[in-house]
Design goal:
alpha/beta, Rossmann fold, eight-stranded mixed beta sheet, 8 strands
């Protein structure tokens, strides 16, 4: 069943593999779970159960603009509950960019549940801090201010999400634009309240406090520059660094599917790392 109701939201998801330790692989940005599906399948084939999902407000899952705490807190609690539904007592958490941050947020909120972290393309630095707030929140606040909820629904990202999940349109159109802007403004403030680097939104003291096996795979673009991944690996006690044979590129963003030639190496490393730490 691709949908499961978690904390009042219908979450679209898929599980690859039918035995072995659990891993949740999370996409970057507000991208669909499909971004991680090929890598998830490759890891599952090595003896793991791998969950991928569309976070609420993304992809084919319900759009619900509301709730306590930051949006990333809500995502973390959803993911924790989703894994528990399948009987996972503990799990590895991993992903790219926003998916890495989501994994770290689960570690912050549910540390007893996390077997290990697999962090790819950590986001940090002034360039990312200048680009992402508008990408995630600012553009939609502007759309609501200019055109109300119809204006929000007419943005390209919302058109794509509503085509996948038409039931969210009625809920959105019933919102007062002022309420929408208030929630999105609060989430924006949450998103920008933490440090800029090396991992956006995660204090260095928090990274230094980790007592969980961690694998760091640095990125190679201006949003996910390798320097941030290297710094994060140095701050996290005992973190393992896995560098792919690539150089940083002077581009804003490299799409994760462009890493496809490296999926076999990533799957091998993830499987080896998790086998060592599955019984921790």
């Amino acid at each position: 069943m691709p949908y499961l109701n978690i904390h009042g939201a219908n979450i679209f998801h898929e599980v690859f593999g039918d035995s072995g330790p659990w891993l949740a692989l999370n996409s970057g940005g507000r991208h669909r779970y499909l971004e991680m599906a090929p890598l998830a399948q490759a890891v599952a084939a090595k003896g793991f159960r791998v969950l991928v999902h569309d976070r609420r407000n993304t992809g084919a899952s319900d759009i619900i603009i509301g709730g306590e705490g930051s949006e990333e807190d809500i995502w973390a609690d959803d993911l924790h509950a989703l894994l528990q539904h399948y009987g996972a007592e503990r799990a590895f958490l991993g992903g790219s960019s926003a998916g890495a941050r989501l994994s770290m947020t689960v570690q912050r909120r549910h540390p007893e549940f996390v077997l290990g972290l697999l962090l790819m393309r950590v986001t940090g630095g002034a360039f990312a801090a200048g680009r992402l707030p508008n990408t995630y929140y600012g553009q939609y606040i502007k759309a609501a201010h200019a055109g109300g909820m119809a204006g929000v629904c007419d943005t390209e990202p919302y058109r794509e999400r509503l085509a996948l999940n038409p039931s969210s349109r009625e809920r959105l159109m019933a919102m007062d634009p002022r309420d929408y802007m208030a929630v999105m403004g609060r989430w924006l403030a949450n998103f920008t309240s933490g440090p800029v680097g090396p991992v956006m939104g995660v204090p260095e003291d928090e990274l230094k406090s980790y007592r969980v096996p961690t694998l760091v795979v640095p990125g190679n673009d201006k949003t996910h520059s390798s320097v941030n991944g290297l710094a994060a690996a140095q701050l996290i006690p005992g973190a393992e660094l896995f560098r792919l044979p690539m150089e940083d590129q002077d581009v804003d963003l490299i799409a994760f599917p462009d890493w496809k030639p490296h999926y076999p190496a990533l799957a091998d490393k993830f499987a080896e790392f998790m086998r060592r730490h599955a019984k921790a």
